[in-house]
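step 3/5: co-fold with S-adenosylmethionine
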Amino acid sequence: MSGNCCEITDGAFSEAEARSERKSYLKNGPAKQTKLILEAIRALGFKNSDLLDIGGGIGTIHHELLEDVAEAATHVDASSAYLKEAKAEAARRGHGERVNFIHADFTDIAADLPRADIVTLDRVVCCYPDFRSLLKAAADHSRKALALTYPRETWYMRFGLRVINFFQRLRRDPFRVFLHPIADMDSLIKKDGFERVSVRRLFVWEMALYRRAG
Ligand SMILES: C[S@@+](CC[C@H](N)C(=O)[O-])C[C@H]1O[C@@H](n2cnc3c(N)ncnc32)[C@H](O)[C@@H]1O
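step 4/5: write tokens
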């Protein structure tokens, strides 16, 4: 995608950071919160599915699920640095032909994308101010399941995110992190026809899995 769809996000995630996350993934496997998404999706028992990973970063979710759950994936990301590492890793695994990589803000291009069986957003809503548009578009694009992680609504997370944003302001970096109200995210997804089938918590992150009802 051309233009400046992703100026803020491109500025926030450097190539060095993306390279180091890929290195850590290759050494240690998926991060703890990502494992929660992978376990929840695998527990659904889907096979030959298609996956839409929004803000997939270095692509951990599709690298993993293309092994046993998904046959094709679309990875939409507003960070070109992350996409570069995700593409390189997909090619290394022989998945290059099975993943459609798109550099964009998902809310800008959602209308042009087809639906997928599974939609994932791992640590994405907390990077985006308008969680309503993002989650509505994500839920609309899921045929069967939607899994996401987001920061827990605890005193220490409120404090921690305020500190991060304080330093962002000092650095004059426009990127901010957000602690969106979990009850509002939950009711928005349920209004779109989903039921919440599992919730798991770590110290920082919460993971929720939704299935399309009926
Ligand atoms: C904190 S990183 C998480 C990356 C990966 N999911 C993970 O957990 O390792 C947030 C990612 O979401 C992407 N992102 C945030 N808002 C987005 C949007 N509206 N559309 C597409 N990507 C978005 C960023 O570019 C970035 O890659």
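step 5/5: annotate
The chain has a mean pLDDT of 96.
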